[in-house]
């Protein structure tokens, strides 16, 4: 019985040592589990913070994209207006060039007309001089004829 008791005590002692070892292991595992939980919670918080940061960046980028689209629409509208203005300016330029060409043609026509007028004036003056000369000659002839008539009358009366 003593021997059996000693064996049982030895077994109990071994079991107590085993129990203490397992309790130590269990405490270590619980501590490790607690550390892992804390670590996972921190990682979860970090991930949550990262997700929030990404969401904020996404919202910011969405706002920027909307602004960029609005800006692009305004620029397209302004570009269309400038294109229309450019077309109008080109048409006006062509009209001005056509007007200048017309003006140049009118100027040239006026120059030609002036040359003709000068020629006609010169020619008219010459014709007027000839007419005057002819009129003077006719007057001289008329005077001469009158003189001859008088001479004939005086000769006819005096004979």
Automatic annotation (TrEMBL):
Q: InterPro entries per the record?
A: ENTR1
Query: What protein family does this chain belong to?
Result: Belongs to the ENTR1 family.
Coiled-coil stretches, from where to where? 19-99
Q: Does the keyword Iron-sulfur apply?
A: no
Q: Does the keyword Transmembrane helix apply?
A: no
What does the record list as GO biological process? positive regulation of cilium assembly; positive regulation of protein localization to cilium; regulation of cytokinesis
The encoding gene is Sdccag3
GO cellular component terms, alphabetically, are: centrosome; ciliary basal body; early endosome; midbody; recycling endosome
Supply the alphabetized keyword list.
Answer: Coiled coil
Supply the name of the protein: Endosome-associated-trafficking regulator 1
């Amino acid at each position: 019985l003593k021997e059996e008791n000693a064996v049982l005590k030895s077994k109990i002692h071994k079991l107590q040592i085993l129990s203490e070892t397992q309790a130590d292991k269990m405490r270590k595992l619980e501590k490790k589990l607690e550390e892992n939980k804390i670590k996972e919670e921190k990682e979860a918080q970090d991930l949550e913070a990262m997700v929030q940061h990404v969401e904020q960046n996404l919202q910011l980028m969405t706002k920027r994209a909307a602004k960029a689209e609005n800006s692009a629409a305004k620029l397209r509208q302004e570009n269309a207006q400038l294109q229309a203005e450019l077309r109008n300016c080109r048409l006006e330029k062509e009209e001005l060039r056509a007007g200048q060409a017309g003006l140049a043609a009118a100027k040239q026509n006026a120059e030609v007309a002036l040359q003709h007028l000068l020629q006609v004036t010169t020619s008219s003056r010459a014709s007027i001089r000839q007419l005057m000369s002819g009129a003077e000659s006719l007057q001289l002839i008329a005077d001469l004829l009158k003189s001859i008539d008088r001479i004939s009358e005086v000769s006819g009366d005096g004979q």
